[in-house]
Amino acid sequence: xxxxxxLINDDRVRVGxxxxxxxxxxxxxxxxxxxxxxxxxxxxxALDRIQKVVSNPGKLHRLAEVQLLxxxxxxxxxxxxxxxxxxxxxxxxIPYPAEPIVFSKFASTIIGxxxxxxxxxxxxxxxxxxxxxxxxxKKAQNVRAENALDYVFGYxxxxxxxxxxxxxxxxxxxxxxKNMDNFCPLGPCVITKDExxxxxxxxxxxxxxxxxxxxxxxxxxxxxIHRIIEYLSRAMTLLPGDIICTGTPSGVGATxxxxxxxxxxxxxxxxxxxxxxxxxxxx
Length: 283
Hints:
4-stranded antiparallel sheet; 6 helices; 2 domains; Fumarylacetoacetate hydrolase, domain 2; 14% helix; globular
């Protein structure tokens, strides 16, 4: 199933399920369902309740008539893994990291799959980085790798936008380069993990103004998802709705010759196989 958050006619956020060209309105069918996927996952029985509604859907909306929002908003944690694709490391002559290199993004950076990205005045080198995103489904602490996928609810997609000219500033820390406003387009849906039995064979792509820039596959990950979850859960408790951005393949703007970065007016399109495509205009 593909889970979305959306608006229609009013300002009330709703949770729904994509059904072809329609959206099943979960909140209209069951008014006890929270209008937030993070809150819904925290209740512990989200999947069973979603399946119950989908088996006998009530209110439907035409997909063309709704505004899709980020499928996850206000998670407790947004975590990312750097240098996690072998080809990208190889092209940069960078050794594969022995352990996951972890950074954080603020939940406030999350925007919708079709929202505009406001280019920050502070950076002249905003780069694209398409990524498969893990959505945690239940509390995970000291998880073993062999059981790690049991804690996954599903997957979504992001552009982990990065101000590359800030990476070498402030002592080389990654906080500001990753957390400028609008730096986490997310969506268009969260697909439940049963739809992606092998998350390590998924194509991820980026286009800028219709030109293909990134075309990779998650098979190239240095650290696989179950290992990443084990690693993180040893250091912190992962909560329902937390998201983990799993790294980006080669083809980012900084590695082009000459380097290319996002400019006002550019159309940034991102696609993760089975999840869908986002389109964000740079303004």
